[in-house]
Amino acid sequence: MNARSPAAGRQRLRRPRFRAVVLGVSMGGVEALQRVLPALPPDFPLPLLVVIHLSPGAGDSLARLLDSGAALRVKEADEGELPQPGCAYLAPAGYHLLVERDGRLALSADAPVSFARPSVDVLFESAAACYGCALAGVVLTGAGADGADGLACIARLGGYTIVQDPADAAMDLMPRAALARLAPATPNAIATLASLPLLLQRLAALETA
After folding, report:
1. Which domains does the chain have, with CATH numbers?
2. Which of 12, 75, 86, 120 could disulfide-link to 147, CB 3.0 to 4.6 Å?
3. Closest of 127, 58, 66 to residue 94, by C-alpha
4. Is the per-residue pLDDT at 1 higher than 50?
5. pLDDT over threshold 80, residue 8
6. Which of 72, 75, 71, 119 is nearest to 95 (CA)?
7. Could you report the per-residue pLDDT of 11-42, keeping only the tens digit for each?
8. Could you tell me the CA-to-CA distances from 10 to 3, 6, 124, 180 in Å, in that order?
9. For 93-140, how does the pLDDT look when each residue is reduced to its tens digit (9 = 90+)?
10. Active site (annotated) includes residue 96
11. Of 53, 96, 114, 126, which residue is the catalytic one?
């Protein structure tokens, strides 16, 4: 009998293709999140980091509302916590949400960016610097251009970019701005709210050698 080489029975180690999803939304965003988050399973294997434009005194009522209707956990992000799979973290009203190089979350009361605090661009750019090509970014309904530069940064670093179909958006300015900023390239996917949960689950299941 021939002796087997040590590598003969060795299985190739595989790991998830993506490590996190970042999502930015503004006008029409509460309704959008109420459609997307409840359609994700409680064991969704990636953390979701979410910026929605809120008035400074909004408190945590939105996180509690979304958590009550979703199978996965929804909470406001806390300073210094490490994002976990199966949880969606919302930027608190009046604070930028960032991802530090070690993967922990940080909150900042720095000046508004793209006329917003929290800013989608701030989250997307900091997350891209941390996760690189292992990040998926999503721009949904909203007014203005917040998120366009951040999504372009994700694309530049090899991440996966998703833009809501403007025809499907309650307010199409943010999706259109993201599409224009990515041009002449295109996002990896243009999705409707109905198709987005399944797309995210497929991305979360991808592996890389």
Report:
1. 16-208 (3.40.50.180)
2. 120
3. 58
4. no
5. no
6. 119
7. 566 789 999 999 999 999 999 999 999 999 99
8. 14, 7, 38, 47
9. 999 999 999 999 999 999 999 889 999 999 999 999 999 999 999 999
10. no
11. 53
- pLDDT given for residue 129 in this prediction: 98
Does residue 121 sit in helix, strand or coil? helix
What is d(CA 100, CA 123) in angstroms, rounded to the nearest whole number?
10
Q: Which amino acid is at 156?
A: R
Taking the complete model, does pTM exceed 0.85, yes or no? yes
78: annotated active-site residue: no
Q: Which of 146, 149, 168, 172 is the catalytic position?
A: 146
Is 146 an annotated catalytic residue?
yes
87's CB contacts (< 8 A; 6+ apart) are: 47, 48, 72, 73, 74, 75
Which amino acid belongs to residue 35? R
Give the span between the Cα atoms of 18 and 67, in whole angstroms.
Answer: 24
As to burial, measured by CB atoms within 10 angstroms (0-12 exposed, 13-18 middle, 19+ buried), residue 202 is exposed
